[in-house]
Amino acid sequence: MPVGEVGLTWHNNYALDGLKTPDFPGGLVDHHTFSSVTEWALGVTPWFEAGLYLPLFTHSSNQSWTYNGFKLRALFVQPDNQDKDFYYGVNFEFSWNEKTWDTQVNTGEIRPIMGWRFGEDKRWSFTFNPILDNNYAGFSRLEFVPATRLDYKINDTWTVAAEEYDDFGELRSFLPTDQQTHQLWGVVDFTGDPISIEAGMGFGLTPATDNLAVKLMLITDLTGPHGLFAR
Question: What's the average pLDDT block by block, 10 residues per block, for the chain (231 residues)?
Fold first, then answer.
């Protein structure tokens, strides 16, 4: 976000065909579960954006409606990333979880960001996030959960992308392949004014992954020149 401007992204996910047992006793079942969170962002400096995920809630097939906690975010980036062939940054997240969402109240995430634009008119982009989930139990207990995206900008309005989300397990010993999660997504982005949309469908690649899920994100600059509450 530009300095002093506020943005909002509304994340929504639904597992059409998900896992039917929770990850831990008392946890949520993925199958036929809707998850949603509003992400608020504030541009603080050209290289720092502060964020807040609140509220995080679900309607699950085993527990109906639940509030699951909130998250603080600190994003540090190369200024004017949108104009660079090589772009980079790092994002730190700090979560407070309800018992339905995680076995630990406090967790975190370290999300390095690196990407390249290439091809004719720089229409192609490749972004890699070697994410580490942190349960504050030591370096070897960090969990490797990378995300990857390859996208193609058709024009100023439409972009198509392939994304993959993975969970290999803790750094000290990766999980067996059939216990890892790997999900491949097909995604379409629409850049609008004042609301942009990202929609996608994901397919599980291992038995430990939800077989079929969909997502919808609504994105707007609340106070920018093209925002819902433009000055």
Answer: 95 98 95 98 97 97 96 96 94 97 96 96 97 95 98 97 98 97 98 95 98 97 78 57
- The answer to whether 156 and 162 have CB atoms below 8 angstroms apart is no
**Distance between CA atoms of residues 95 and 107, nearest Å:** 5
Residue holding tokens 């896992």? Answer: 19
Report whether 221 contacts 7 (CB < 8 A): yes
CA neighbor of 145 nearest in space, from 164, 172, 162, 165: 165
Three-state secondary structure readout of the chain: CCECCEEEEEEEEEEEECCCCCCCCCCCCCCCCEEEEEEEEEEEECCEEEEEEEEEEEEECCCEEEEEEEEEEEEEECCCHHHCCEEEEEEEEEEEECCCCCCCCEEEEEEEEEEEEECHHHCEEEEEECCEEECCCCHHHCEECCEEEEEEECCCCEEEEEEEEEECEECCCCCCHHHCEEEEEEEEEECCCCEEEEEEEEEECCCCCCCEEEEEEEEEECCCCCCCCCC
d(CA 79, CA 88): 9
DSSP lists the bridge partners of residue 162 as 150, 186
pTM of the complete model: 0.94
Sequence letter at residue 225: P
Whole-angstrom distance, CA of residue 208 vs CA of residue 181: 6
Cα–Cα distance for residue pair 53/71, rounded to 1 Å: 5
